[in-house]
Specification:
Number of strands: 3
Low-confidence stretches: none
Number of helices: 6
Order of helices and strands: HEHHEHEHH
CATH topology: Molybdenum Cofactor Biosythetic Enzyme, Chain A
CATH class: Alpha Beta
Helix content: 40-55%
Distance between the termini: 36 Å
Structural class: alpha/beta
Strand content: 15-25%
Shape: globular
């Protein structure tokens, strides 16, 4: 299947998950999740892809992240973006949880993002 055939075969399902105790409690606004959604919206509209984006904010909770990732997989979500939970603190576990449910890890993406956006 060519890229064009795939693009026209169905709507692309995207999920953006923000991990933040404070944002999930409403103590401050999530800035990174909406920024990712906006970037994806612009990108896929420019490429003329049919797509839907679902986003949510959850607390820094490994079991809750795992549940949401498995739900996304079960619902045939094509791409999941996560933001938060990647530091070195005791509640920063996103990469470890992600690795347990990945179909495919694509090394180098984060390095490219860091180079491009800082």
């Amino acid at each position: 299947m060519t890229k064009e055939e795939f693009k026209n075969s169905r709507k692309l399902k995207i999920k953006v998950i923000t991990l933040s105790d404070r944002a999930s409690r409403g103590e401050y606004a999530d800035l990174s999740g909406p920024e990712i959604v906006q970037f994806l919206d612009i990108y896929f509209k420019e490429k003329k892809w049919e797509f839907s984006i679902d986003s949510l904010i959850i607390p820094d909770d490994a079991s809750l992240l795992s549940k949401n990732l498995l739900d996304a997989k079960e619902n045939k979500t094509d791409i999941v973006f996560t933001t938060g939970g990647t530091g070195i603190g005791p509640r920063d576990f996103t990469p470890e949880v992600m690795r347990k449910v990945l179909d495919k890890e694509i090394p180098g993406i984060m390095e490219n993002i860091r180079l491009k956006f800082g």
